[in-house]
Amino acid sequence: MNIKKINSxxxxxxxxxxxxxxxxxxxxxxxxxxxxxxxETNLKIKNQKLENxxxxxxxxxxxxxxxxxxxxxxxxxxxxxxxxxxxxxYIKNNIKNISEDKYNKMxxxxxxxxxxxxxxxxxxxxxxxxxxxxxxxxxxxKNTLNLNKNxxxxxxxxxxxxxxxxxxxxxxxxxxxxxxxxFLIQNMxxxxxxxxxxxxNYIYTxxxxxxxxxxxxxxxxxxxxxYTKKNIKKIxxxxxSVIFNKETSIEIFKYLSKSINGHNIYNKTSFxxxxxxxxxxxxxxxxxxxxxxxxxxxxxxxxxEGSNTYKYNVVxxxxxxxxxxxxxxxxxxxxxxxxxxxxxxxxNFINNIKYINFKKLIKKMYNGLIIDxxxxxxxxxxxxxxxxxxxxxxxxxxxxxxxxxxxTISGNLKSLFKNIIYMSNxxxxxxxIRTGSILVSNIQxxxxx
Length: 449
Prior knowledge:
Blueprint: H1 3-26, E1 30-46, E2 49-67, E3 70-76, H2 81-95, H3 109-113, H4 130-147, E4 151-169, E5 175-192, E6 195-205, H5 208-214, H6 218-227, E7 238-244, H7 246-259, H8 262-266, E8 285-289, E9 312-316, E10 319-320, H9 327-333, E11 347-351, H10 358-365, E12 368-375, E13 385-396, E14 399-412, H11 413-418, E15 420-423, E16 433-434, E17 438-446
Helix pairs in contact: 1-2, 4-6
């Protein structure tokens, strides 16, 4: 770290402590100060022209006060003394009217004050100029359009982002963590008779060199994906086996994470409320939350409340072992905090049976549908029922035959999770849900009437 950055870090820490002391002087309570800093450049290239470019720079501070089971917070982006005093007065005036809730507490000392690993491969000494971002985006678009004349560009978006967090409270220890992200997404449409079909491909990584090494393959990948959509046919309503590809599998498991979120559990708004230590997935499937994967998209040493993250089993041998909890929900449910304020970290899927590749997964299905896109909301977490628009590829005798769109899949997530037969080894490392494609039996498909 260079001298300039060290001095900047010291300045920020000094400012946080100063604000903490000012709040403490005016309010006798437990106090937590959180400073969030974000810097982003994003641009879009379309038809070889720079369509837009945005520069975002934010720095704000959150003051949270815990007093006699009352919790009050305020966020401000002006750090001068006058403004901070206004924020303090806001808290003093409003906390009087807040009802006591015995579950409103600051994070436990043991979870906050222990040492944590901060070198998670989330930030590297790298950078890219705006000109290079533009040139890379133009090259991808040009190469893709040259590969297939029936394609229409919907644009290439390139984002570089750096965010940092500092936390300080009555435990008198400053915690800090930074992450840098590079995100590149390509959007294309293929003209097909009287219809147009859309698809995309993307790279999401902490390390610039990883993006540089891989962006050349985006053109070939998206052309291969989108070319197979030229032959479109309708299918009839039926119950069939389905493969959710690695992108749509992420969406399926997001509903699982939402259904076991502690806030939905204690509010009794989830169909998983009574499922702890019960079988919810096939016996061979394990889900491990691991926030310490090097260069993992969801890697974090602590959550937004300052609680140190740790590795734990979400699902073991198909049995749900943990709900996803923060300080409040863990207190409310009288369970150990899993330190997930702000969401899940890296979900790793461990397979107790032999992994197979995607081609073998298709052969295992033999006849059925590969779903590559899910549309709309259509999921009721309280009941588990879902109904979503979808598109994908029809498979006969282990081979892709044609593209299918304008269909609906429906059923209940409880059955869907239990009917997962296989997961392939095409793990998606561009997500905090690191799943492969899944083969699921007995899915209701509504097609042509």
